[in-house]
Each structure stands twice: as structure tokens, then as C-alpha cells.
Amino acid sequence: MQRIPSLFIAPSDLGGRGVFTGEPIEEGALIEICPVIVLPENELEVIHGTFLHDYYFLWGDEQKECAIALGNGSLYNHSYQPNARYLLDYEHNTIDFYGIKNIEAGEEILVNYNGEPHLQGRVWFDGGKR
Hints:
The chain is mainly β. The protein is built from 1 helix and 10 strands, in the order ββββαββββββ. The strands form 3 sheets. Strands 1, 4, 5, 6, 8 and 9 form a 6-stranded antiparallel sheet that branches. Strands 2-3 form a two-stranded antiparallel sheet. The protein has a two-stranded parallel sheet with strand order 7-10.
């Protein structure tokens, strides 16, 4: 696992906990490479009835599996105006987080749960506000 040493977990204004940085992060910088635990397709339905429901990523070329990110990977909060993005690396079984804007020290690192930073589709917990 690789990550910027200044990352830390703290209470988030978005609710619960979030990932923050203690030092500035430049646009394009690698923030973290998180290994994942891949669960087979037949366990995807099971995870919906567990506490892990809000922490998994769809996985695989057909998005029929799911994965739990280790490190901070499952703790990055959602925003429709993210300052970071994630890339799913199926070959290495990792989720890689990168800055897409300059991020200031003390700022929360946010990703768009839709997968691409510009996508504006509602996510499962969104009451329609954007």
C-alpha cells in the first residue's frame, strides 16, 4: 500500500468520518493505492444486508463483483464537486486515488461515487441535492 504520509481520518461535515490531508496535495498527485478484497458475484447481494453496504465498490469488467478497499479507500466521502478521483485497477486488485485539483492542508479529500468526477447522477443516499 502506498499513500501520502500526511493523510488522516477525522470527523467530516458531510457526516461520519472522512479522509483529510495534513499537507498540500498537487493536482495529478497520487494520494493512495489501496489493495482490495474482492468478493465474488454471489456475495454481492449478501453485502446489501450488512453494515458494509456503504463501503464497497462494484468490481470487475462487468461490475458483477464487489470489493472492499483497505487503507483509507472505503472512507473517502462523496461530492459532486470532488477534488480527487479513483481508478479501479483490476490487474493489480487496487483502487488508486489521485488529486484532480490542488488540495490544501486540512482539507477533506472527496471523490464522486459515480466513478467519474464530472458525472452528476444521484447516488444511493442522495436526497436529490447537488
